[in-house]
Write a structure and sequence with these properties.
It is a single chain. It contains four helices and two strands; from the N terminus they run E-E-H-H-H-H. The protein has 113 residues and is mainly α. The chain has one domain. Strands 1-2 form a two-stranded antiparallel ribbon. It starts with 18 loop residues before the first strand and ends in a 5-residue tail after the last helix.
Length: 113
């Protein structure tokens, strides 16, 4: 008798796990604290369901992949986080990197590679 096939787990990643966000220049890894700060800011702004779901289901091996609108939502939230902190230096360096990469991608337009 053969062994039963095992299905991949459909459980969401652990809330304390690092997540990766896909960018054209390569993935940006976010700590749980950085991800939570970003998601808190996105939720405060409304119209967040697809972006929040993407972050909640992501991991390092399954990065968040956003369309142009999703990138704009994240960029706007990151900008607000930096303004609220009073200085760019006071937000997580990976959040700054993600904001800078998304700024470039948004400026290049949807079809630039």
């Amino acid at each position: 008798m053969s062994e039963p096939a095992s299905a991949p787990s459909l459980a969401p990643p652990a809330p304390d796990a690092t997540v990766a966000v896909a960018t054209r220049a390569g993935p940006v890894e976010l700590t749980p604290a950085a991800r939570d700060a970003l998601l808190h800011q996105i939720r405060r702004r409304g119209s967040d369901d697809p972006v929040v779901r993407a972050f909640e289901q992501a991991s390092v091996s399954e990065p968040v992949s956003l369309d142009r609108l999703g990138k704009m939502v994240v960029f706007d939230a990151l900008w607000t986080l930096a303004e609220g902190a009073g200085s760019d230096d006071l937000i997580d360096p990976q959040l700054r990197l993600l904001r800078d990469r998304f700024r470039e991608e948004i400026a290049q337009g949807p079809t630039a590679k």
